[in-house]
Amino acid sequence: MQIQVVKSKIHRARVTEADLNYVGSITIDENLMDAANLIEHEQVHVLNYRNGERIITYVIKGARNSGIICMNGPAALKFAVGDEVIVLSYADMDFEEAKKFHPKLAFPDSNTNKLK
Fold it and tell me: CATH classification of 2-94, choosing from 2.60.40.1520, 2.40.40.20, 1.10.1660.10, 2.60.40.10?
């Protein structure tokens, strides 16, 4: 049996930009991507602490050590600069393998989005 489990999590990063006129996606500082084991174009769920919104989009690599978390395209209507977010990705795996799996978690400073 295959099940879906949390693979990666960035916990409580702060949105630094919102660009409605972009095609779509979320731009994430490459340091945060590395810390959470995310790759460019990977599907993610983004949860908004301010209003409870939850969207599904994909990752675009942001400049390393920039602290950028930019909501692009229609997501810019659901997330505002300053909102705290959780970014999650999931993976399918065998049930027994999933019992031993540990997701990669990143806890950035919510003021700078730099790793603590």
Answer: 2.40.40.20
